[in-house]
Specification:
Layout: H1 3-10, E1 19-22, H2 23-37, E2 41-45, H3 61-65, E3 70-72, H4 77-89, E4 93-97, H5 108-115, H6 118-121, E5 131-136, H7 151-155, E6 161-163, H8 168-180, E7 185-190, E8 197-200, E9 212-215, E10 220-224, H9 228-241, E11 246-250, E12 253-255, H10 259-269, E13 272-279, H11 284-295, E14 305-309, H12 320-323, H13 327-339
Parallel strand pairs: 2-3, 2-4, 4-5, 5-7, 6-7, 10-11, 10-13, 13-14
Antiparallel strand pairs: 1-8, 6-12, 9-11
Helix pairs in contact: 1-8, 2-8, 4-5, 9-13
Length: 340
């Protein structure tokens, strides 16, 4: 990695000043700042232009930067990603949107066979600095194909960097870092958190590849990412009422995983619960639990537990609250660390 690449990984501070934004607004601001800072950045996808995206994440970008910088595409995910590959190979930094996570599957062959492998195939001669945005997960009452948690497919694919913010600040910082990253990034945006608000300071960079301890604690470590970070924090707050001191770690980057931060946190408490909304089998949660068990075995006072979605196709809207982990399910898992 060159000095320029290292600088780009950290993100470029913006002079816009701190403000309170929704996560959707934070991503919109990050895209706008990137478009303004770098003429090689383009944003495109289905309905991202005039409409501003189905979640209005790209609202105003076409009006501000024109249809050559932010534009609509046909309903053809494979074509969208394939076009981005060609642009990235020729010096541009495309940011493409898959309208919903499960809509990305027609582009899966492009992502796995070309996006992920181009750098290795050319021995680093051809890099693909591109971002694939995916509204991810459930919790919005969406029907089938609108609520998948598909992160395991991408985290399992060598050559892809996969990130999942849980706060507006991280959404802004990680988006700026992803756009400036020298290789492809799959950017998972938790749909359930689009309308949550928080302080955003564009001058505070967020590094790709670094987890964060977002709540200290001494008894148990909860490891979560994306929409499950607020669930873990809620569980920690409820646990405090019962005398539990619960630490929460936000993974933030799913691949490459920040073993240093996560494992140190678990070693400090001796107990761990991994929380994720995707089905548990062959999942990112399973990988995190395995890494903790492998590298923290002599520190653990109890087996690592997982709280995840069930191993079923996504539940209908009226039943999704049973499918998605909540604070009570997390605390039930915490209890098993003490009483089996």
């Amino acid at each position: 990695m060159t000095m320029l690449d290292a600088t780009r990984q950290q993100g470029t501070p913006s002079p816009t000043g701190a403000q309170t934004l929704t996560m959707a607004g934070a991503i919109d601001l990050a895209l706008a700042d990137a478009l303004a800072a770098d003429p090689s950045v383009v944003v495109f996808g289905e309905d991202v232009g005039r409409l501003g995206g189905v979640f209005r994440v790209t609202d105003g970008l076409t009006r501000r930067f024109g249809e050559e910088r932010c534009f609509d595409t046909p309903l053809a995910e494979s074509g969208i990603v394939g076009t981005a590959v060609g642009m990235a190979m020729n010096g541009m930094r495309p940011v493409v949107e898959m309208q919903f996570d499960a809509f990305a599957y027609p582009a899966f062959e492009q992502i796995v066979s070309h996006v992920a492998k181009m750098g290795n195939r050319t021995r680093g001669a051809v890099r693909l600095p591109m971002v694939i945005r995916m509204p991810s997960g459930g919790g919005i009452g969406g029907v089938e194909h609108h609520s998948d948690s598909s992160e395991a497919y991408y985290a399992h694919t060598p050559g892809l960097t996969v990130v999942a913010p849980a706060t507006p600040q991280d959404a802004y910082g990680l988006m700026r870092a992803a756009i400036e990253f020298p290789d492809p990034v799959v950017f998972l945006e938790p749909k359930k958190l689009y309308w949550t608000k928080g302080a955003v300071d564009p001058g505070t960079p967020v590094a790709i590849g670094r987890a964060a301890v977002v709540r200290p604690g001494t008894d148990v470590t909860l490891v979560a990412y994306g929409a499950m970070v607020p669930v873990a924090l809620a569980a920690a707050a409820l646990g405090e009422e019962d005398g539990r001191s619960i630490q929460v770690v936000d993974v933030r980057t799913l691949s490459p995983c920040d073993d240093e931060t996560i494992l140190a946190a678990v070693r400090s408490t001796g107990r761990a619960v991994v929380v994720a909304e995707a089905p548990g089998y062959a999942s990112v949660a399973a990988e995190l639990a395995a890494r903790i068990g492998e590298h923290c075995f002599e520190f653990l006072e109890a087996p690592v537990r997982r709280v995840t979605g069930f191993d079923i196709p996504y539940a209908p809207p009226k039943l999704e609250h049973h499918h998605l982990p909540d604070a009570n399910r997390v605390l039930d898992a915490v209890d098993t660390l003490y009483w089996g």
